[in-house]
Amino acid sequence: MATDLETLLEMGFEQERAKLAVQKTGGLQGALEWLEKNQDKSLEEIKEPEKKDNDEESPELQAGESALSLVCNDCGKNFRSQAQAEFHASKTEHINFAESTEEIAPLTEEEKRVRLQELRERLAAKRLTQSAEVKADQKKSETIRRKATQETQDIKEDLQKKEQIKEAAKKRREKLEDIAHKKRIQVRIKADQEERRIKAAREKAVRDGERAPSPPVTPTELIAPGVVTSKPASAYTEARLRLQTSNGVVTKTLAEATTLFEVAAMLEQENGIKVQSFQVNFPRKTFSAGIDFGQTLREAGFVPSAALIVK
Hints:
With about 300 residues, the protein is an alpha+beta fold. It is built from eight helices and eight strands, in the order ααααββαβααββαβββ.
């Protein structure tokens, strides 16, 4: 028949802790209760009070000593040893104890098995609870990590979007500068051609003894002073937009090469408005995202000015 110490060792308890439990309680039942009470303490923490209280009377049962029964007057429960009574007091805060002539019979093998099974179930339940707590902590950490990753991704996407807008604006400026440069060259070429034509006509008139032709009158010279004339739409390089949004009216002056996608991006970035479409009332037409937003303001007919409803 296995001793109490061997039984505890078979259950998986450390030898030193199991030996200490048997010495302090004098039996398997008390040892199990003592181990349950001190399962979260290290051996150093358990032995520390012993170092401070070397002169105090030990509650351990000595070899050959008869077991006296103690009874709790608060609940009527009997205890084999003083250590068991102290353990009961620590758990219930009962303080009224007295000696009893009633002798507590030792645990039978069946009772020992039942107590061992109860202890195993409590230990398994505790491990299950700890496992659930660990899983909950891991899940919480994973949620925090995913949130941080999503926030980082959103920041990266926002930066990329801003860079795309800057790059598009840069290309638009370069395109407009190139167009303006080509127009200046064309005007200069036409002026040189006209100057050479007039010069050749004068030289021919001189050779033929005819009157030299007068330089041609430009359309601007025929306009009376002080009269203001309107320019055709093709002469404008910018568009004045009046944007009716859910937050109010927004006005912008943009280059003719600006796309509707860039206008929508500006409204979202500057005013927090997510644009699905632009609509004009006359002639009634709707420009939808993903279909028409690739058009420039010139291609959409918004130069020199337009009033748009933002949806």
